[in-house]
Queue: 2 jobs
Job 1
Amino acid sequence: MQKFLRCVFFLIIYTSLNLYAADIKSIGVPYIENFSKALYASGNQNWSVAKDKDGVMYFGNAEGLLTYDGKYWQQYKMPNNQIVRSVAVDNNGKIYTGGFGAFGYWSFKKNKLKYTSLTNLIPKSDQLKDEIWKIHIYGNKIIFQSFSTIYIYVNGKISILKNASNFLFSYKIGNRFIVENKGLYELKGNKLEFIPGSDVVCKTGVLSILPFKENILLIGTGKDGLFLFDGKTFTPFNTAANSFLSAFQLNNGAKILDKYYAYGTILNGIIIIDENGKIIQRINKSSGLQNNTVLSLYADNEQNLWAGLDNGIDRIELNSPLYFYLDKTGIFGTVYSSVIFQNKIYLGTNQGLFYSDWNQNDQFSNLNFKLIPNSQGQVWELTIIDGQLLCGHNNGTFNVVGNKIEKLTGYSGGWTIKKLNSNPNILIQGTYTGLLLFNKNSSGRWQFYKKIANFSEPSRYVEQDNKGEIWVSHAYKGLYKLKLSSDYSTVISNKYYDEKNGLPTNYNLNLFNLEDKIVFASESGFFTYDNISDRFSKYNVLNKTLGSFASSNKIINAGSKKYWFINHGKTALANFGEAGKISIDSNRFSILDGKMVQYYENISRISDSIYLISVDDGFVFYNASQKIQSSSSKIQQRVLIRRIEDITDKYSIISENGNGGSEIEIRNSRNNIRISFSLPHYRQAKIKFQYYLEGYSKDWSDWSYATQKDFTNLSSGKYQFKVRAKIDDSQVSDITTFEFTVLRPWYLSNWAIILYSIMFVIILIMGKKIYERKLQKDSQKITDKLQAEQDEILKQESEANEKEIHKLQTEKLQAELASKNRELANSAMTLVYKNELLQKLSDDILKLKDENGKKLADEQIRRIQKVINDGMNDERDWHLFENSFNEAHESFFKKLKAGHPDLVPNDLKLCAYLRMNMSSKEMSSLLNITLRGVEIRRYRLRKKLNVPHDKNLTEFLMEL
């Protein structure tokens, strides 16, 4: 019976969630992306929203016009810093804006977005003095509406429409233009015609007119609810939303996904209804909006609903397979486990076990979570087994019944609990201190059986293999294989495994049952165990298929041969249904990256296609059957070239829209640029870019998330920058091309080349003349050179003759000198012989005797000796010798006297005799002194001449 009720419950849930399989679900809220004013760096209020044909979003902001392209925000100020109340974009790319006392359009001029005012076209008698609240593109007309006047801009002119009383707001529905003025008026031609009976809907003001089915209009009023207008009558639209819209003051509306209607309110966010008036969604600050005051709504062509808020901008991702319930108030803390059971939803958190009633027939009803008494503390796991909800808690294990818990055991830390494969009537649980067993009592309720003996290690993960052995792992304790006794009560064999057995590490090892096979998860990938070798090896086939998810830290069974792989905060769903092939999808779950409790991720399967995913501050519903509707499998958007910046020394903007149809030329001295690009795809996806600069790069870059690229020191020439995008590693966009030219440096410009050409011609002419002059000079030089060579030859011949004559003269002089030296030597020898003879006569005279045999008288001898001495010392002989010596030795005595003026005549004589290389004996004869006297004179002469000790005196005088 319990199984039947559970099946019925799941069927109801499944049916209600899949009734509109490709539509908006009532459970939770769609993904909401918040853009705070700190992010877009502009004013807090956003009064209007529009989108152009390229996908760029425009917002009428409190501080001006705000643009967003999926990556970059940019603010543009109005001329007088007015608030932009209204925005509209035509098919030509013009962005029309209106504010207080001003309206006009923005367009790209010289590749920069510039404002052009149109108020100067207004007749002076009808000058604009209030706010422009609405702008409509109506055929070839642009309609600007203020509370007092409607301005119609067409063909460069402005016409005026007024009424007896002030307008409220205007609406364009298809080809119809309707404005409220104490009733509804429709523009027909150039006139406003009253719609009969419309005053009934204008009592509290009309704030929204949307197209309904079959040409019917859905009209939203300030406080009177919704009405239907079939072209003739106005009928109240009975819906539960009326009380909500009246209480919280409807402010605007938008039709979404062709069958839903979203209404923004002043006080409580957004409400979404279907064509039957059923409330599908309520989205407010408590469920993800930044602010409850919705100033504008815009549904784009990518199933996004944009909300301009009183404080920020939000994007609501419609038709998403993920729906969120987040605890923005922090009531229940961090969610570790969640499950729906018997019309209640349970959340196991770090603060305790919380529950709320769950009405499958009214899933939109607000959830009101309450703490189950006595459940305070850490909840690790919530598991439904055989129709009973078991809670693994820090304080033990409990059976959850409604809003109460029944304690099964006080053993703390119930991490995981499951049936034994070998005996489905017994549960095995991993705790802080080992393993526990549970069985059923007589009434079929689970009860504590016993603690398994002989094992007390922390048991984070527990699995039983096909041999009945129990595998246990803990992040910091390692891996164990246990063999139990036949009654499972005792561990009879315990083996610990580490690196010695092929494991990459002892830490962060987890184990899971994957397709009836135990796999072991690690940072290095998945491993399998071989029972024969008792070793572990890499599960290469699985690792290769999973790619980056090969290092997943957790696997959760998703049923139908599908498994969740959790890789440190990132989530993927793998399908093992097709034999030999594994498909893995992680792209649609990128929203969940980092939002789950790491290492304690929990995903519960509610039905065949509905999953309940626990996240940090709540839970998420995933509908696997929900398909994202798209008009084409190809990327509809193109990559936009956004800012081109000069980054040479200081930053400056070259362009805000690539080349924008005009040629971009960059000065050569400013050849360092940054190119920014983006893909205006706003739904959650992994968007990568690849670029190639033709003329600079050799090949396409690697795919990356970067949305800008710097190029430095670009040489002159034409370039093509090509870029493309890839969404979720599958769809690739068309290539967007941006062309630009880096100009040549000034010295290579066209004018410079012309100048160079003129200078070249002038240089040629001057060169010709210079060459002719040079030719003449060279001819003259050759003539002069020949003449000089002849003169040189004659000069050389003359010098040779002179040298020959000089040689002959020298030889003659040398001959004469030799002759004179011989004569001088002969003369000197003659003097020597003479003096020797006289000396001998002097000696013989002393020996002479008279006839009596007696010596001669002394007087006689003295007279004879005097004659001899006079002959030996005759100065005439010396003067004759001196003259001859000077002739032979070129004034030797003059040089000697000049250098040594203290020399006496006898010194000069000795110098002359030494120069002639005479012997001491010869010199003693000439000087009429003894040999000893010669040596003494030589010694004295050396001192007077300062002759060095190691120098021969004769050589010294000969060198003089």
Job 2
Amino acid sequence: MSASLLGVAAPAAAQSSGEAQESEAVLEDIVVTGTSIRGAAPVGSNVVSVTREDIEKTSAQTVQQLLRSVPQVTGFNNAGQGSFGSADGSGTNAPTIHSLGASASNNTLILVDGNRIAPTGLNHALSDPSLIPPIALERVEVLPEGASSVYGSDAVAGVLNFITRRRFDGFEVQGQTGFGDGYSTFNGGVVGGRTWDGGSALFAYNYSYRSNLAGDARDFNKSDLTALGGNNFGNYNCPSAVVRPTTGQPFAGQYFQSSYTTPLTGGYCDTLGVTDILPEENRHSVLVKLEQDITDRLRANVSLVYSDRNNVQNVSRGTISNVMVYGAGSNPANIGQINPFFEGPAGVNREQISWSADDLFGPGAQTESGARTFQATAGLTYSFNYGWQGALTGTYGHDTSFSDTTGQICTACAILGLNGTTQTGGNPALSVYPTTLGGSTVVTRLPLTTANALDVWRTGSANRTSDEVKAQLLDNINYRETIQTIGSARLKFDGPLFALPGGEVRAAFGGEATEYSIEQHANTGGSAGPASLSSQGRELLYDRNVVSGFAELLIPIIGDGNALPLVERFDISLAGRYDRYNDVGSTTNPKIAFSWGVMEGLTFRGAWGTSFTAPALTSYGADDRGTTLETQVSSNTQTGAVIPVALFPEIVGYLPGCNVGATTCTLTAAMTGLQINGGNADLKPQEGESSSFGFDWRPSFVPGLSVSATYWTADIDGAITSASFAATSTIEGLSSALIFNPTAAQIADAIRGRTVTTEIPSNVYYIFNFSQRNAFDIRAAGIDFDAHYQFDTSAGEFTAGVAFSKKTKFDQASSGGEFADLLNSSGVNTTFSTLGFTGRASLAWEMGPWSADAFVNYTNAYDYRRATSAFPDGQRIDAYTTIDTHLAYDFDDGGWMSGGQVFVDVNNLFDEEPPFVNTSGGFSSAEASPIGRVVTVGFRKRW
């Protein structure tokens, strides 16, 4: 493997073969990550580079797949497909460095050619770099340290900069197809370019297809894990209804099905098999770049990007749970509520129903999602006298993300067909779930007859549901669309100030103005019956303006003119940036860094700085109530939750069974409350402080050897997420979001202006605010390491390498509380897992037209800390190791295939299954891939 993927590469690398050589003046304009100063590598920084050569050895079809091979990026060695890291229904991918962030608080800045891109997502404002196809990339640079002093918001954990090809002279085509067990891929692309005196043009197009991975295609994807020593995560939502007689009935509280003679134990049914593990993905991507010298001092450039991604995922037809149903002989509030199809155990005439519609309708429910993204960047660069340059850059980006679920049942229609009301409890006097207190619309279907009732007891041809009722059940809609835009203008000046014995002192300064907007639309089935009669539409508008100023100074203290023993070079960089937001205030972030060249081949470096991440608009909300599309109020139960009296003394004498003298009290299923979801207009920016120290060593006495190591620290305060009930009810710093014994005014305020999605309990014991908040602080540290050795033998040229990212610390606290050690664990914190070690080793061989590479990807064993009955103290998860291979043959004999290459790649050569994790599905999609072995064959040719 190329050394650059395994370690530090020169940020301003030369262009690959087939591209025109550039003049020194043009080389100064190559995009460099981590600095605003032309032609200078970022002082003190460890920049990990994925080169063009690396890209061609991975068979990656998307940037998301490419990043799964970088140890510093969260999601290493996982599937690289779907909405990992975003928790967003549109299928957005949101990469994060060192696990420092989550979907609502992504602390990794994404850039393309040094510019921000349009945010994407349905419920989040995230940057997805997969809009750039790998065929159009020259390299990817990973800066794993805070960089807000240069770039502003989001660069707390670091920066991922995707640098596209430029000044390409020629034409290149590529095609490949891959196949695995129940899985296939196809990818095809072209790139063409032309250079001329004073200008260049480039065009790239890529089409990528990746099939779905069906839920029943992997044996380990199941809910009942008892055979592996785990829990049964199944449910009672079965094609033939599971019935539960209610209080006062024979067999009350027990579960039955079909024959109704033997009670069921444990979750009986599993819907995982009908829901795809991974969605099918189709993507078209286009890149156009133009550069032209207008005069000998003025240069213009334009870059256009378009991406159209479409995902399709097969899903369940839908389920209902615990719906009250009445049979003959019962005494409902309205005699017309008796269901003519009612069945149950002997003597039972009133029961709760749980049911799945997958047998009644068969396959056919799908969620189609995706994003259409366009971005245009234009710039003018003017060269002044004395080496100074001014650059004006403007960017406009537009993204439309969507999700459309079809074929799923209308829940309200199913309830109407079971008990004649829209209420799971069957009360015909209750109104449809109100959007505010005082709603009064009551919807019923009475009396129930064989023509309008729903039969959930019998399956297949024996089912008695009428065609009219079936049609009503599928009269449903769930469509969401979010349009996000970014517009920015940036003016920068940089050049030399004066000369010191160590070299020229260089400076850069400028300003930037950025505007964001979001427009959200939703049309969902209502709670009053068929969507054609009762669908609910919502629209929200958000906007934000940011004005920034920045400056940077590069001071070569010691250089060629005044070198000393053991100090051949010593550079210092000073940088700072001021950002003012119209909604969340202002922030100033400095950075200081040094590079110390001890001797030829040995450099020490270090950096310190502060950084920040502004709350995403989709977390902050569209108004002073923090309203987002996720904003809603619903009934909530926390059966078995243990509440400490010291935090909530008001529960003594209020909660049933909570008596004086108790230190804790336990919630029961009868103690219902309200849960609030949504944004929070009181959010503050997340603040970070980072430092790093490391060395780069290329000893002259061992030609071909390169070693690099960096120790890093990252402190983050006020990371944004929604705190779980368990955390909120036990941690003092979060407890203000839980109110016991709420007053009528507090209940009214909780509901005001928010969509109510369930019945309001007659007795509200508590209000749990699950909205976004500045919930936790992080103290993290670790080591990034790379070593590679290139050597020649009579059997060919070899390159051996190893790269890893090892965390040495990951502590988390909630709102000023005590820090807890979460290192090398998953299942507790609300960010990603905090794996202690991820690494990738490689061995590459090249001889004549043949080349081969082998890669070993390793994720260490870790603790899954989520307590379950099977693992009350948590579970130790096995290490995960996969091997990838690459074999290629280059045609350079001067024939018609000259410049061509054929290759065969195998990912996960030994078809390693993901380690067992005691959670529904049996594995962690964040730490491992369910795909298994994939063999890819392909070709590329250059002219």
